[in-house]
Amino acid sequence: MIGEGERRGGSSQVEDKRMTFLLGERLIVGLYRLIQATRIHHDNNQVVVEALGRCTAALDALLGGGEVPVQVWRDRLYVCGERLPFRKDVAGVMTDLVEFMNARSLGGIVFSRVAGEDLAGCLLAFVRLLNTAHGHQDPVGWLEDALREKGISCIEVREIQDEEAGTPERNVRKRAVDMYFNALKVVKGVASKMDRGVAGVRKARRVAQEVVDLINEDPSIMLALATIRNYDDYTYMHSVNVAILAVSLGRYVGLSRVSLEHLAVCGLFHDLGKIEIPKGILKKQGALDKDELDTMRAHPLLGVKKIIRLNAPRVLRSRIILGPFEHHLNPDMTGYPRTHFMKGVSVMGKILKIVDVYDALTSERVYRKRAFTPEEALRKMWAQAGKSFDPILLKCFVSMMGIYPVGSVVELRGGALGIVSMYSPGALRDRPVVMVLEHDGSGGYVCAGEIDLAKEPLEDGDAGQAIARGIPAPMLGINPSAFLLPGLSPA
Ligand SMILES: [Fe+2]
Ligand SMILES: [Fe+2]
Q1: What is the CATH number of domain 169-401?
Q2: How many angstroms does the Cα of residue 339 sit away from the middle of ligand 1?
Q3: Burial of 77 (0-12, 13-18, 19+ CB in 10 A)
Q4: What is this structure's pTM?
């Protein structure tokens, strides 16, 4: 649930983990003492100074590896994604801190280094805010506002995570569907607020946290969600799909949880600039002329201008600008927008580029007869490896998606039709689980069971079942997401 530990340099993973436990424990104890001390003492009191020193020393050491998230989940404490063991002599402090955070609906605190901000001073101000936060109706929202007012960007707060995690698959599925429709609402809300003035990012960040949680819990359901297509709502669904696919690929290549959350926000906002592009250009059936093309190609820069104006902590804005700016740039810096200031595209930009093109190719668009099937899209993209896409990340993407990605409509040997629903752990990339379809007698199809091709014999011939070919879903009037996520509708 909390995800992989932060990747950091060091002699070995075991040693890294041991250091995280040690420093994490020091940080927790220091933080707890600081909370207690600031309730009764002034800033210059010796007890406050000592607790603050202990806290900042631990944070300084941990920050060598990037951001430091302190999270509470199911009454346990996690530092940098590692669950701290309940050692006897600190168990009381940990339990009290968990209670303290629960009472404020506080699921996490993320520390980072920001140029020009004094970590110790910010920490002291933050702890004083924490002590008064519980009197407010929405303590986390109040804390976010208070931190912003004080100009503190190096400390961010998160709401408590959903306790439903770990429930049966049906609930994960329901949460995933609810998240999807909520994400759509949030992206639309930000776009329309930006049109009228300033929009905030709190809701988008919560969606981002949920996307990461759900992908950690069940990547297949999330890949099934990303097959949802609605022609009329293309731009917003595309943004949500890009967020889901980007986080899936980011997780596959081992990005940290914090980076994945930023990547999700980048995905949600990557085409924000398109709200300024005239509909006539966005929905033009024929080829765009030069002026129209220039207008269209301005959208990454227009998006960046919107992100700069978002009502969000400076540190967050700085982390979600680059990906949207770069999502149409090629590895050799060709593409758009043209820039001479950068030497290369960031990992987030490269990931966004891959998943953005994949989602666009597999969606129906006015300017072509039909959408590419998932495997056609992957093949088309593979031909551009190294030119349009980072070859290593594209290889990872193809490997993650499989030869027939979740949502592909396929014909099995023998002629049966099916939809790829998931890949069992360790399955070969052409041996997914397939939901077999049968005619329902009135022109449609019904699910007639599932077959896990990974369990079929590998030899050719009649001995084992296998995929013969992929078929474009619209040709058969099949909407894969309706089968993969039955009863698809928000709560
Ligand atoms: Fe774009
Ligand atoms: Fe896009």
Answers
A1: 1.10.3210.10
A2: 16
A3: buried
A4: 0.75
